[in-house]
Design a protein that fits this description.
Layout lengths: L3 H14 L1 H20 L13 H13 L8 H17 L10 H13 L2 H22 L5 H85 L4 H24 L20 H10 L3 E7 L7 H22 L3 E8 L3 E8 L16 H12 L3 E6 L5 E8 L16
Parallel strand pairs: 1-2
Antiparallel strand pairs: 2-3, 3-5, 4-5
Length: about 400
C-alpha cells in the first residue's frame, strides 16, 4: 500500500510525457469495458433491434471519440452522448459498462473546461439518455432511473472536484512563489538599507579624522616655521589621531565580517559614554570643548546612543573646519523621555554660510536622516549673535512617541 502513491505518480508522469498514447489507452479501455458489458446480463440478442455488430461499431465510435478530448472536449462529449443514445434506442440497456465512453467524456469535460460547461454537459447528457430509456421502455423501474441519473452525473462532479483541487494547488504554489519573491525583495531592501547605514558610518569616521589630521598637519607646518620646539608634540597628536582613525575604521568595517571570522571587532560601539575620548581628539587639534549636563543622566537605546555620538562628532568637525574659532560648547539636557543635545560655537558671522552642515548642504541632510532613523529630530542654523548651533532631540527608548507626533521637551 505504501507504493500505491508512487505508482499513481509514475503513471501520471508517463501520461504527461506521452499524451496521445494515454488517450489511445483510454479509448481501448472504454471499448473493452463495453465488450465486457455486452457479454453480461441483462443484454439479450432477442431484445436488440439491431445486429450485435452494429452495437460493437457504435461502441467503437464512442470510444474513438475520446481521442479528441484534449482539443475539443465539448465535441467529444456530444459524440459519446449520441453514441449512447443510439445504443439506448437500439434496445441496449444503459448500464455503466455501455456508458463508459460517455461517462469518461463527461469527466474530461468537467476537468478541461469551466464549472458551468461541465454542469451543462452533465445535465444535457443525463436528460437525453433518460428520455431515450423511457421512450424505449415505458415502465422503467425507479431503481434503474435513479442509477442512470447517478452514474451520469457522478463523472462531472468528480471531474469538477479534481479541477478545483488542481486550481487550488496552482494558486497555493503561486502564493508561495509570490511570498518567496516578496521575502527576497525585503531581504534586498534590508541589505540596501544596511549598506547605506554603513556608508554613513564610514563617512562620519573618515570625515572626522581626516579633518582633524588636516588641521593638525597645518598646525605642525606653522609650528615648524615659528615654534619648532612645539612641533614634535603636535606631530605626536597627529599620529594619535591617525591611529584612532584606523581603530574606528577597523571597528566599523568589522561589522561587515561574517560570524565565523576570527578578527571580529572587540571595541564597543561609540556612544555618549565615549565623549571624553572624542573631545580629547578635538582638543589635540586645537579646539576647546566645554561640556555641560542638565538633569539626571540616563542610558540611551543603542541606536540613539550611536546617533548622538556621530552627530556630536560631525558638528564639532564642522566647527574645526569652518567656524574659525577655538571654542565650542556641548550641552546635554535629560528628561524622563528625551535628551536634547546642543552643539554651538562663536565663530565668525559669515562662517555658517560656508559650512557643509548648512541647510543646503549634504552634511546636515545626513545628520537629519540619522536623527529621524531613531525617532528624533535635528535643527541647525546660524546664531543671531554669531556662530552656529546644532540642536538634536532623541527619545530615550524606541517606544517613545516620535517628535513629529508630539512636541519634544525642549521646544
Amino acid at each position: 500500500m505504501a507504493q500505491s502513491p508512487i505508482m499513481i505518480s509514475h503513471w501520471r508522469n508517463a501520461a504527461r510525457r506521452h499524451p496521445r498514447a494515454a488517450d489511445g489507452a483510454l479509448a481501448l479501455a472504454t471499448f473493452a469495458i463495453g465488450v465486457i458489458g455486452s457479454a453480461l446480463p441483462p443484454v439479450s440478442p432477442a431484445h436488440l433491434r439491431v445486429p450485435e455488430t452494429f452495437v460493437m461499431v457504435i461502441g467503437a465510435l464512442g470510444a474513438a471519440s475520446l481521442l479528441l478530448h484534449r482539443d475539443r472536449p465539448r465535441l467529444t462529449t456530444g459524440l459519446t452522448t449520441v453514441c449512447a443514445l443510439i445504443l439506448a434506442l437500439a434496445g441496449v440497456p444503459l448500464t455503466p459498462l455501455f456508458q463508459a465512453p460517455c461517462l469518461a467524456s463527461l469527466f474530461l469535460l468537467a476537468l478541461r473546461t469551466d464549472q458551468r460547461t461541465g454542469r451543462i454537459g452533465a445535465v444535457a447528457a443525463t436528460t437525453t439518455l433518460l428520455a431515450a430509456s423511457l421512450a424505449h421502455i415505458p415502465e422503467v423501474p425507479w431503481g434503474v432511473i435513479i442509477g442512470l441519473i447517478a452514474w451520469t452525473l457522478l463523472p462531472g462532479a468528480v471531474g469538477d472536484a479534481v479541477r478545483s483541487n488542481s486550481e487550488y494547488l496552482a494558486a497555493a504554489e503561486a502564493r508561495a512563489a509570490l511570498a518567496e519573491h516578496t521575502r527576497e525583495e525585503e531581504a534586498l531592501h534590508r541589505v540596501s538599507e544596511e549598506r547605506i547605514r554603513m556608508a554613513r558610518e564610514l563617512h562620519d569616521v573618515v570625515a572626522h579624522h581626516i579633518a582633524l589630521a588636516a588641521t593638525q598637519a597645518r598646525t605642525v607646518t606653522y609650528l615648524m616655521r615659528h615654534h619648532p620646539e612645539r612641533a614634535p608634540e603636535m606631530m605626536e597628536n597627529l599620529c594619535d589621531s591617525t591611529d584612532e582613525a584606523l581603530r574606528e575604521l577597523r571597528a566599523t568595517v568589522g561589522l561587515l565580517r561574517q560570524r565565523g571570522d576570527t578578527d571580529s571587532p572587540r571595541d564597543p560601539t561609540p556612544g555618549v559614554g565615549q565623549l571624553p575620548e572624542l573631545l580629547g581628539s578635538f582638543e589635540r587639534a586645537g579646539l576647546s570643548v566645554e561640556v555641560t549636563t542638565e538633569g539626571e543622566t540616563r542610558p540611551l537605546s543603542p541606536g540613539a546612543d550611536l546617533t548622538a555620538y556621530r552627530i556630536i562628532q560631525e558638528a564639532l568637525t564642522n566647527v574645526t573646519k569652518h567656524a574659525r574659532t577655538a571654542d565650542a560648547r556641548v550641552h546635554l539636557a535629560y528628561t524622563r523621555s528625551w535628551v536634547t543635545i546642543t552643539v554651538d560655537d562663536d565663530g565668525r558671522p559669515d562662517a555658517p554660510a560656508s559650512r557643509p552642515g548648512h541647510a543646503s548642504g549634504y552634511g546636515l541632510i545626513g545628520m537629519r536622516e540619522r536623527a529621524q532613523s531613531v525617532g528624533g529630530r535635528l535643527q541647525a542654523g546660524p546664531r543671531t549673535e554669531g556662530g552656529f548651533t546644532v540642536s538634536l532631540e532623541l527619545p530615550m527608548h524606541k517606544t517613545t512617541q516620535p517628535p513629529n507626533a508630539e512636541k519634544g521637551p525642549h521646544q
